[in-house]
Amino acid sequence: MAETRIIHGFHAVTARIRQNADSVLEIYVDSQRRDPRARDLLKLAETSGVRIVPVDGKRLDGMAGKSGHQGVAARVDAALKVIHLDDVLDTLTEPALLLVLLGVIKGGIDYHGQHHLGLLAVSMVLTGMQMLFIGLVADLIDKRMKL
């Protein structure tokens, strides 16, 4: 059996179902949530063939640890799937605002770099960006140019 892990929060679970529904083994939804956001997630899960397990908030608290679960968690295949930018763009149903950073982590990342990436992530949320891609393409280009 494949190794699994728990993800939680509406954005994480919804994005995983949209991008790779086959890797979502089941979602756990707080049985007290009846708001539009929960209904939309349940509808997406049903149409994607994902098993839905109603649970109480305490079980979700245990699954998510100290992090806020927003009333939803999912058990997913822990194997990392390589996702290409073209694949993601093909799945978009509306125009999206993306931030693509290439070669910014050249040679590793220190504390200040982590801080700056965190600021970029916060700025993305505040401006409504949907995705952040961080790639090392520039490192590959540098290596090819030295040949």
Explain what you see.
The protein contains six helices and six strands; from the N terminus they run E-H-E-H-E-H-E-H-E-H-E-H. Mean pLDDT is 78; it is low at 137-147. 45% of the residues lie in helices and 22% in strands. Helix 1 packs parallel to helix 2 (36-48). 13% of the residues are buried. The N and C termini lie far apart (44 Å). The strands form two sheets. The chain has a four-stranded mixed β-sheet with strand order 1-4-2-3. A two-stranded parallel ribbon has the order 5-6. It has two domains: 4-77, 2-Layer Sandwich (60s Ribosomal Protein L30, Chain: A); 85-146, no CATH class.
CATH architecture of the largest domain: 2-Layer Sandwich
Determine the fraction of residues in helical runs and give it as a percent range.
40-55%
Q: Determine Rg (CA atoms, Å).
A: 18 Å
* Residue runs with pLDDT of under 50 for 5 or more positions: 137-147
The first-level CATH class name of the largest domain: Alpha Beta
- The total domain count is 2
Look at the structure and give the mean pLDDT. Answer: 78
Number of strands: 6
The CATH topology of the largest domain, please?
60s Ribosomal Protein L30, Chain: A
- Distance N to C terminus: 44 Å
- Biggest sheet descriptor: 4 strands, mixed
Sketch the topology as an H/E string, one letter per element. EHEHEHEHEHEH
Helix/strand structural class: alpha/beta
Taking strands numbered 1, 2, ... along the chain, how are they ordered across the largest sheet?
A: 1-4-2-3
CATH H level, superfamily name of the largest domain: Ribosomal protein L30/S12
> Approximately how much beta-strand content do the residues carry?
15-25%
Q: How many helical stretches?
A: 6
Shape: globular
